[in-house]
Every structure is written in C-alpha cells, then in structure tokens.
C-alpha cells in the first residue's frame, strides 16, 4: 500500500541529502521533490508496459483492470498514461520544462483519480495483492498533485527560463 509513496519519498530525501552535501542540483526541496517525483513516475510508468508474466510488480493487465468502464479503449488508455508519465518525468528533470510538466502532471493526477477510486471500490488487486482502500488512495493522489504543483509553481515559465540561458560572447541568442 505504501510502496508508491516510498518511491517518491525515499529518492526525494536521498537527493535532498545530496544537496545538503553540496550537489547543487538538489540544493532545494523543490528540486529534490521534482526529481523524486520523476523517479516515481519512471517506476510507475514502467508498469504500464510490463507483460503479465512479470510477477515482481504490477503489470499492464492490472492497470487495465483499474480503468473505469466509462473510459473507452482501456488498453490504449493505459499505454497513453504510461507515456505521459515518462514525458512528465523528463519534463520535471529538465528545468526549463519543469513548470509545464508539473502543471500537466497535476492535471493528469486529477484525471487518474476516478481510476484509483474505481480500483479501490471494486477491489482491483495489483500483482495479486489486496486492493488499496479508497481512504488511502485519495490522499495518496492528493500528495502527488501537491508535489507536482510544488515543483511547478516555484519554477519560471518556460519562456522566461529559456530567456535566462546565458549566451556566450560571439553567439547570437
């Protein structure tokens, strides 16, 4: 039940510790959280493409079972959300795109909430384990939304970030 939260929390804490030890990229909680969320998204996004034969983690069929019946093309939806998670992760680690990625991910997490509620209410299991209860799934999703917004809202918009890129003497901007 706590595995996905740990995929966010542990990397965030480790990266922030590295920042405290002098790694400039992780010098702030905002940057460490953005990278921690990116790590989590790569791991969870991978499940969207994992075949049923893999038993160490949730797989594609588990995620298809989460898709509510009102959503058309559940297989395609699962593949698409996996790609969006990968793109969101990439955007979070590329500073000029962090704001856009964080805002887009917050929207994605809101859109995924019905699938999480459906999975909890209909007892959809992951990898044969009991379904995560709704009392945990909703606050968990709110944490992801909050972290995405935290990463996004402290970052300059993409146009401003690109303008700040220094130009070396003799180059045109």
- Poorly predicted runs of 5 or more residues: none
Q: What oligomeric arrangement do these chains adopt?
A: single chain
Structural class: mainly alpha
Shape: globular
What does the radius of gyration come to? 18 Å
Mean pLDDT: 88
SSE order: HHHHHHH
Helix count from the secondary structure assignment: 7
User: How many angstroms separate the termini?
Assistant: 49 Å
The total count of strands amounts to 0
Helical proportion? Answer: 55-70%
What does this structure look like?
This protein is an all-alpha fold and 173 residues long. Helices cover 68% and strands 0% of the residues. It is built from 7 helices and no strands. Helix 1 packs antiparallel against helix 2 and helix 2 runs antiparallel to helix 4. The longest helix is centred in the middle third of the chain and has 27 residues. It is globular, with a radius of gyration of 18 Å. The model has no long low-confidence stretch (mean pLDDT 88).
What is the fold's blueprint, element by element?
Blueprint: H1 3-20, H2 29-47, H3 60-66, H4 74-93, H5 95-121, H6 134-153, H7 158-163
Question: In a nutshell, what does this entry contain?
Answer:
With 173 residues, the chain is mostly helical. 68% of the residues lie in helices and 0% in strands.
Keywords for this structure?
173 residues; single chain; mainly alpha
């Amino acid at each position: 039940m706590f595995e996905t939260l740990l995929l966010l929390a542990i990397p965030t804490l480790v990266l922030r510790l590295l920042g405290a030890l002098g790694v400039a990229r992780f010098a702030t909680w905002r940057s460490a959280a953005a990278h921690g969320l990116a790590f989590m998204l790569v791991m969870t996004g991978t499940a969207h493409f994992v075949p049923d034969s893999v038993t160490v983690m949730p797989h594609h069929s588990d995620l298809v079972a989460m898709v509510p019946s009102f959503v058309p093309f559940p297989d395609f939806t699962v593949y698409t959300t996996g790609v969006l998670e990968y793109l969101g992760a990439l955007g979070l680690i590329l500073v000029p795109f962090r704001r856009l990625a964080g805002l887009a991910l917050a929207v994605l997490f809101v859109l995924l909430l019905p699938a999480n509620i459906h999975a909890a209410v209909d007892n959809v299991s992951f990898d044969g384990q009991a379904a995560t209860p709704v009392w945990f799934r909703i606050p968990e999703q709110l944490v992801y939304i909050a972290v995405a917004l935290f990463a996004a809202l402290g970052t300059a918009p993409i146009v401003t970030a690109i303008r700040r890129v220094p130009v070396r003497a003799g180059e045109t901007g």
